[in-house]
Amino acid sequence: MVAERLPRHEIADDELAASRSLSESSQRFWLLLLLFVAMLISYAHRSALSVAVGARSSSMSADLQLSEAGIGLLLSGFFWIYAFMQLPAGWLSDRFGVKRAYSFGFLFWSLTSALTGFVNSFATLLGVRIALGAGQAISFPASSRAVANWFPQRERGTVTGVYLTGVRLGTALISLVGTLFLARYSWKLFFIVISLLPLIWLLPWWMFLNRWETSAVSRTKDDSKQISFWNSLALLKQRSVFGIFLGYFAYDYAWVVFITWLPRYLTKERGFTDNEMAIYSAAPFLIMSAIIIASGLLSDWLVRNGREERLVRKILIIVGLGVGCLIVPAGIVADKMTAVGLLTISLCGLGICSPNTWTLTQAVCHKKIVGSVSGIQNFGGNIGGILAPALTGFIVHATNSFALALALVGVVLVMGMLAYWFLIYERVGIGEET
Predict the structure, then answer these.
(1) The listed CATH number (3.60.20.10, 1.20.1250.20, 2.60.40.10, 3.30.2160.10) that belongs to domain 31-211+234-423
(2) What is the pTM of this model?
(3) pLDDT digits (tens, 9 = 90+) for 254-263
């Protein structure tokens, strides 16, 4: 074990009372709504570039002279710093509290996203994408820590499933609304509008958690030594944490291929019009959202009825990754509507695993390190995020086809299935607790 066990008497009574009272209050569902909206905004900002370069009516690619390989590099650039910021972001959520950590990250990434409307070259756009990734690194570790803090175990899967639908709805919404907006207005105005309007979210977020969260300031000095940043890195040496790292790498590799390349795949490879692309790049994410909630409800029902939580969540993850492998035949079938159907089912497979990837982490970790391990998890995922768009872009550029790129996704998903099944089984604790 990598950190000294914190004596219970050193945990501030008011912190425990605040956490307990919110988890027992119906007001916790206002917190869920805020987490959902934040995820929706996050993925709308993250996916906006894919829409802007994928829409035929948008002049962004022509204005900035972007090739397929260049677009792949830009889509990958978001994840360069985003991936490595997961570890400090998770630690900051544990150390300084969810309210302050999420607020700063949200403000930073929104302002950075707005700067996209002012870029005039490939280099400046790449810099903005990298900065956007740095700001958004806080979203998953902070959300996971919020669920561990303020929601009972029996609701973990459902709550995580609900806020993760914000990810899919944000992606779907920006595909649909963004395409319509870009048909009438410039891509520069598009980025400015979608980035600045959502800043209003900060007001209810701060007001709500200002009441319920007792931040690290109210803790004793000894409490701050609960786990250092360097000790949080050392958690990766534990077998279960390494399995979480590898498994989520595979999940996120597939997911990032969808959110970065689907609009351009539909227009370039399958010949859809802009209006058709708006529909068929949005609809799969909406269906996936329903699957995510259903998967969360099912996993929670099984746990409430006496099934072992870690096993339940592992099995659903592995089933979902297996269904996700349908992305492989989607790349080689001749009929474009069959391809869309297979891609939709593949996304639904990822939806089955989605809430369980995060609740499995909560199930195997002590609450005090959920943020840190979630950061490690998302770090692994976003190493996949770095590789997926760039590799896809280079493969498409070299072969003039998406078939080989989508087949590679299937290979990665099989690797993830093996990691989740064989590596994750022991509890990750602090001090002598396991």
Answers:
(1) 1.20.1250.20
(2) 0.74
(3) 999 998 889 8
